[in-house]
Write a structure and sequence with these properties.
- It is a single chain.
- This protein is mainly alpha-helical.
- It has one domain (about 5-55).
- Helix content is about 90%, strand content about 0%.
- The longest helix is centred in the last third of the chain and has 30 residues, at about 30-55.
- About 15% of the residues are buried.
């Protein structure tokens, strides 16, 4: 697990909370920001997957 996995999980959790708060408060801007954070978190997680794969392959 890389730091990108951790950052991705944090961003995803933050985004999920923002979406829920935005929906509850009727704040579309907060809801949209939360959706963006969730996407950012997923991308960071995938980046971590790529980093893990590169480490497994090792130098040529």
């Amino acid at each position: 697990m890389t730091s990108q996995h951790v950052k991705g999980a944090v961003s995803t959790a933050k985004g999920t909370a923002e979406v829920a708060l935005g929906k509850a408060a009727g704040d579309r801007k907060l809801e949209a920001k939360g959706k963006a954070h969730r996407v950012q978190g997923k991308v960071q997680g995938k980046l971590g997957d790529v980093q893990d794969a590169v480490r497994k392959v090792g130098p040529g």
